[in-house]
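Supplementary Text 2. Reproducibility record for the structural model of the 289-residue chain.

All settings were left at their defaults, and a single model was retained for analysis rather than an ensemble. We include the record here because the model underlies the residue-level annotations in Supplementary Table 4.
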Amino acid sequence: MTQIAVLTPDPADKSYIGRWPEVLKRLKATLESTGATVVATPWTDHVEDASGLAAYDLILPVIAWGYHRDHGRWLKACATWSAAGLPVANPAEVLRWNSDKTYLARLADKGVPIPPTRWTDRVTQDQVDAAFAETRAPVLIVKPTVSAGAFRTLRLAPGEILSDAPDGAAMIQPYLKSIETEGETSLLFFGGRFSHAVNKRPVPGDFRIQVQFGGLYGAVTPDAAAMALAQQVLAAIDEPLLYARIDVARDDGRWVLMEAELIEPDFYLDHDPANGAGFAEAVMARLEA
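Retained model, structure tokens:
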């Protein structure tokens, strides 16, 4: 019988204890519909030694939430899984580079449109002031390059003092007002095929679209330009992806890439008209290959 491991958060990290079991429940129902046996195991149990994962036919890191708080161990784990040749999907090398948002700069070099971004090893007030002067943006976003779920993300107005700044490498971008008016659109792909899309908006007065901040989610049909951008992103990545969530938003009317979530994205299967059938088919195709 096919054995599938789903990597879950560190048991010591209680941040997601109220959310990930429900996501796991949906994933298990989808995967077990193929006849597979699904076992949940914390990613932190397999950092130095891959032997505990060796018996599985497929390893899915799709609920490895919290890796951004323990990035050094995450990189070590990715190296361990890669060296052991484990059937991790997405591939361990993808899990490594996708964990640092500087990948956006590499995609931009390939022609993928992203918001204007300043990259820094450590953000300072002078850099924020310079970004305001250069972009003339009314609001800026500052966040770590290793982050998830709006972790240590700041929204700053001109003249506002930088406080509680991210530790280490960070990125500075103009705040896209469209996030409040039109929201962000997530396009889900399984095995390279488009599955469904979800629009995500913040509650009034906030800028964060994540569930834990009250984000408002709904199924949506992406327009041709949004779909074209998502396909451009996947072509630029050009790696064997089992799944991808491409998050896009409008910047002065044009779609730009916000994130390419290739590690542990919520697939929003509760908004999928096919109830995850596309993901199950992609998993079966990967196993048969």
